[in-house]
Design a protein that fits this description.
It comes from Pseudomonas glycinae. By secondary structure, the protein is mainly alpha-helical. It has helices at residues 10-32, 38-44, 51-65, 67-77, 79-96, 103-131, 134-162, 168-189, 211-222, 225-255, 260-265, 268-284, 290-313, 318-344, 351-375, 382-394, 396-403.
């Protein structure tokens, strides 16, 4: 069992990890499981297929909308009540999708559902860092990320199977019901980390909430060039994967004429590769510091993106596209949790506010970048997608080159 920094029984610590994992998994499932049905959604609501990537990007943007407020509120009032409120909001908006009358309401609900992702990033991630010591926190972030990755890995396949018996409205109702069970698990198992004295004598005291002080603290973070650079790199490194999730239904189903089940099966190589990268990260954590791990991850990361560009400039096949994406995904899996940890501890401010800033910057990069790739034709041809997605990911390299060598190897002191 992982070492906890607060007095938490092993079974409750396990339940806490499982409940957070389920909530994170649900926030992704709310997108991935219905992606095979998005053509049906637009047809049912009489909307243009251009709303398919738009709805996905609105979901990402929803994850940004409240993070600036959620993180500081959790610093003041505690992680536990904020995460319970976020889970309740997510479940209610999923259930409300059953009565969606048109695409405008559907998109608005997607925005609200995406706010659940904001609670995961701004509240549950800092809570994990405050409950567990450094190595275990990074390991849990990676391993729990593997479980969350089961959503894009199995979500499209599960969604295509369920759609043979259920409508897309009933899928959302099911997500709402599972969110209710998740809320019960969080209520029973989640500890409060604010104001609790840890085993090492440290304590994260409540921080008074003031809009004036809040704006000055955010401005101070934005002046921290290292922090902003790492956050931008975090978003850009994930951009090709996010663009693939949003545009895959158009590329595979509408463009290539695959069935929804075939579309779902083609997701397996990409997200399996991310899981492989996370497992490699777990094995290497004991012998290497975080900057070294990220530098190692750049080898498969860059090789995969360069493969996409080379394949697009010759004769890109679906197999070639998948090969490049899978190589890139291994590098992403190896680096994501480590880079998040470096970003979180590149500032001495409260971890709720810092985590909220990480989420806002990185998710905004992914949402805006995904929208731009869709707008310039990334969903119309495999070659266009491969080139623009690869270039977007490679933009992270100058930022990593600039800021990664300057990150202290002991940047992640135990919380």
């Amino acid at each position: 069992m992982q070492r906890t920094l607060i007095n938490l029984p092993p079974l409750r610590a396990l339940g806490f990890c499982l409940a957070i994992t389920l909530f994170e998994w649900l926030t992704y499932m709310a997108s991935d499981m219905v992606m095979p049905a998005m053509l049906n959604v637009t047809q049912d609501l009489g909307a243009d297929t251009a709303h398919i990537p738009n709805a996905f990007n609105l979901y990402l943007i929803g994850g940004v909308c409240l993070q600036w407020l959620i993180g500081p509120l959790s610093d003041r009032f505690g992680r536990r009540p904020l995460l319970l409120a976020g889970c309740a909001l997510f479940g209610a908006t999923c259930a409300a999708t059953v009565a969606t009358p048109g695409i405008e309401v559907f998109n608005a609900l997607r925005l609200l559902q995406g706010m659940g992702l904001g609670f995961v990033v701004a509240v549950s991630y800092p809570a994990l860092q405050e409950v567990f010591c450094e190595a275990d926190a990074v390991r849990l972030m990676a391993l729990l990320g593997n479980v969350a990755l089961l959503s894009p890995l199995l979500g499209p396949l599960l969604g295509s199977l369920l759609l043979e018996w259920l409508s897309w409205r009933e899928l959302f109702l099911g997500l709402g019901l599972i969110a209710t069970l998740t809320w019960i698990g969080l209520y029973a198992c989640m500890p409060e980390t604010i104001g609790v004295v840890r085993h090492d004598g440290g304590q994260q005291a409540p921080i008074p909430f003031s809009l004036g002080q809040l704006s000055s603290r955010y401005l101070a973070l934005l002046r921290n060039h290292r922090f902003v650079g790492i956050c931008l790199a975090l978003g850009l490194m994930s951009l090709p994967l996010i663009a693939w999730i949003g545009l895959a239904p158009l590329l595979l189903v509408q463009l290539l004429g695959l069935t929804t089940r075939e579309y779902a099966l083609w997701q397996i190589p990409v997200f399996s590769a991310v899981i492989v990268g996370n497992l490699i990260l777990d094995r290497l954590l004991a012998s290497r510091d975080l900057p070294q791990l990220i530098r190692l991850a750049l080898w498969p990361f860059c090789l995969g993106l360069l493969t996409l560009i080379a394949a697009a400039l010759t004769s890109l096949s679906l197999a070639g596209l998948m090969t490049g994406l899978a190589l890139y995904a291994v590098g992403l899996g190896m680096s994501n949790a480590a880079l998040y940890r470096l970003a979180l501890f590149s500032s001495d401010d409260s971890k709720g506010l810092v985590s909220a800033s990480i989420g806002m910057i990185s998710i905004a990069v992914m949402g805006v970048g995904g929208s731009l790739i869709a707008a310039i034709g990334g969903g119309t041809r495999l070659e266009s997608f491969a080139i623009w997605a690869a270039l977007g990911g490679l933009l992270s390299l100058p930022l990593l080159y600039r800021f990664l060598p300057n990150v202290p190897t002991d940047s992640a002191s135990s919380t």
